[in-house]
Amino acid sequence: MKKFSFLTAFMVLSLSAYCQLQSGPMLGYSDMREVLIWAQTVKPARVKVQYWEQGAPARKFSTEEVLTSAKTAHTAKLVADRLLPGKRYDYEVFIDGRKAPVSYPLTFQSQPLWQWRTDPPAFRFALGSCTYISEEQFDRPGRAYGEGYEIFDAIVRQKPDFMLWTGDNMYLREPDWNSRSGVLHRYTHTRSVKQMQPLLGSVHHYATWDDHDFGPNDSDRSYWLKPVTLEAFKLFWGNPNYIFDEGCTGTFFWNDCQFFLMDDRTWRSPNEARTGDREYLGKRQLNWLIDALTGSSAPFKFVVIGGQVVNPSAIFENYANYADERNQLIRSITEARIPGVLFITGDRHHTILHRMERPGTYPLYDVTISPLTSGPAKPQEAELKQPTVVDGTLVTERNFATMEVSGPAKDRVLKIRVFDTKGGEKWNREIRAAELK
User: Would you call 384 helix, strand, or coil by DSSP?
Assistant: First the structure.
């Protein structure tokens, strides 16, 4: 009888810890000496992470304990800061002193110290945009717009080092975008989808936003609640830095490559504005980007923007609608002789590769990967006739991609692979860093 009572009590305590975990844990940024781990609880709770180097479980470390609260949507950001470079770690989450039972692996990695020692290591990252998680009570009538959640399992099977979320990472609805409560509900609902949890717990994550996680459809700098959606973005993502007080602009390195997370909403002029300067990234952000690209020695400089850059069709929300600023960006890259620039974009609910030829220098590529779980859409016929379109790269079903960088320091190669929701390969291409000089 006593044994039964002890077992029952243990099960109740374990279930209590499990029930308090609303979503996550999720891995944020990774560096050589520290990693960010995020979690969300159902109600106020004390949260910490215990971690150890794989193969050495006897020596465990712990993050500081964080108390979650309604003020921060019960989210916690925990920093594992007793790391050595180039190691893999296992970890556990504790809520109110009890281990939260999780049925999938929880692992993270620190970035390696390769400089002055070896060639930069190979690495692989996954990417995608447009993640709609249906909620019938608040969705528009008709067939569910968000489907194919098994895509998150397919991403995990590719074993990426990190995941790059390139905008519309969740979709604010009519009940959401006028209140902080609505915004936080939408983030919580999206982040809590069951199929996403194994991906969150074992792959590092970086993100920028586009209109649907910034505000209403096609929203711009006039959106009245943008300080609140920025607050929510920072609460729910684990990026390593924010360049400006406004917006989600940031940058990070993975091995020898640099990623530039751009904000195409905070400073954006209304799409229909016909007077004054038409801004997309805005002067301050654009100047920062050119400076940062100029100062970067990365063989591949991935510029991540919600909307398409290279596509010359001035339709929907492509950069081509803001021709003067787009031309300034391309001209600046050309005049400054910045090598290795490649654009990663989303938004369009289809995947396609564009390539812009530039006389006297290398071509500019734009890899559009979309959608993850939102409804697919086809490009307009006129777009497919543009000279920038790379034949055989159009995908009009839900999909994701991986990019793998490999090879010696002086001959790095980027391999792009696109997959359907079940992990079947749709197409692949290789781009050598030597071609982008």
Answer: helix
